[in-house]
Amino acid sequence: MIKSKKLKTLLLTLSMSMLIAIPAQAATYKVIPNDSLTKLSWLFGTSVTQLKQDNNLKSNTIYAGQALKVPTSYYTVKPGDSLSVIAKKHRISLYSLRRANHKWTSSIYPGQKLMVPGVKVTSVKASAAKSVIPYTSADLDLLARLIRAEAENQPYKAKVAVAAVVVNRVQSKEFPNSIKPVIYQRINGYYQFTPVKNGMINKAATAEDKKAALEALNGSDPSNGALFYFDDSATNKWLWSKPILARYDKMVFAQ
Q: Could you tell me the end-to-end alpha-carbon distance of the chain, in angstroms, rounded to an integer?
């Protein structure tokens, strides 16, 4: 029989081990089209110089299908887990988790190991009281106004998903790193969000819009990690060519 003091120590050790992700280690990442060392350095929380050194690269050129060593942590899937739950536990975006594992479906199974990008040694305790990105009251109001303009007559899940797309963009590092610059961003002269162009962004938000915005800021993501959304009447072939991650009534959410 283990003495009481030793038993307490053992239980404490086991408890602590369950709360910590596996420390960062070298893993193999398969390059996909449009990847670059810069994007991968952002995704895995390292530098271009370190990636080149770890992979004996003489230039910044990489190609689709190439296997690269990247620093990452691993998480073993447990019963009841989902990708969104795992992302929230580690306080990373669902988009980043999908991107690191090339996982654009929601199918996972207990015992499966997933790379957790940008996490060295991380507590997996989720804190619902903290948002997944920093925001001000003005940011919350702006996000809620975007929800009203884009999804006024759509289901509540679609409203949360609209806000989640903004959150995912803030976290993706392929877009600006805060809410207002993301919403007002123009790329090649084109507004990323139509309500900014047509002025609908200035309509006051409802209490439900603000509630949906807060849910997304606290980690809820019905978009399943999407970076884009559009109406199902859209004729843009480029948008429809993207992997579809979720649909709610007339709204389509894509990677």
A: 55
Q: Which helix (H) or strand (E) holds 7?
A: helix 4-18
CB under 8 Å to 171, separation ≥6 — which residues? 92, 93, 95, 96, 132, 133
> In degrees rounded to 5, what are phi and psi of residue 253?
-120, 130
Classify residue 160: in a domain, yes or no: yes
CB pairs under 8 A, 24+ apart, for 35-39?
35/62, 35/64, 36/60, 36/62, 37/62, 39/173, 39/174
Mean per-residue pLDDT of the chain: 83
Domain shared by 231 and 147, yes or no? yes
Domain coverage including residue 173? 137-254
70: closest CA among 27, 101, 23? 27
* pLDDT band, very low/low/confident/very high, at 130 (cuts 50, 70, 90): low
The pLDDT-based confidence of 228 (bands split at 50, 70, 90) is very high
* Residue 65 pLDDT: 92
| Domain total in the chain | 2
* DSSP label at residue 21: P
- Of the two residues 1 and 227, the one the predictor is more confident about is 227
> Does residue 72 sit in the same domain as residue 150?
no
> How far is residue 153 from each of residues 36, 137, 197, 205, 236, measured CA to CA in Å?
39, 24, 20, 13, 22
Write down the residue that tokens 């369950």 correspond to: 18
In angstroms, the CA 66 to CA 108 distance is: 25
Strand partners, 116: 73
pLDDT range class, residue 156, cuts 50, 70, 90: very high
Q: Please state, in angstroms and rounded to a whole number, the distance separating the CA atoms of residues 149 and 119.
A: 36
